[in-house]
Amino acid sequence: MEIRWTHPIIFLFGVISNTVNIYVFTRPSLRQNPCCMYFLSSSITALIYTIINLPLRTLQYGYKIDPTTYLLSLCKIKYFFTFTWRALTSWYLVLACFDRFLHSSSNVNLRQLSSFKVASRTILLTFILINIVYSHVLVFY
What we know:
Keywords: Membrane, Transmembrane, Transmembrane helix. By secondary structure, the chain is mainly alpha-helical. Helices cover 82% and strands 0% of the residues.
């Protein structure tokens, strides 16, 4: 099928599914669960990535309209955003898996690391580190 038809369908399903995820993970019963914080962060970044990136790709590949060809800075920002937010979505899922490992550990010290406070700090630290790791895109890409 053609990009003009598939991208809007993917966009619609992506926005709906990530919005439902955000709704579910912000319920009071799940709000204090550290694993749900990672899933919530992943859903938020995936939603932002979908809303910004997919329409640009549809214009670029479906209609041959690419606003990044005229402005180098816009091109760099687009690729920086694409790399960082795609990586953030994946890393938050990895952190959710690691949190489940900590939570189910027989070691008390490891279980204590599965907390809301640690999750909040880890999410922020991951955001900062991923942005630093991909900062070269803004200069050299």
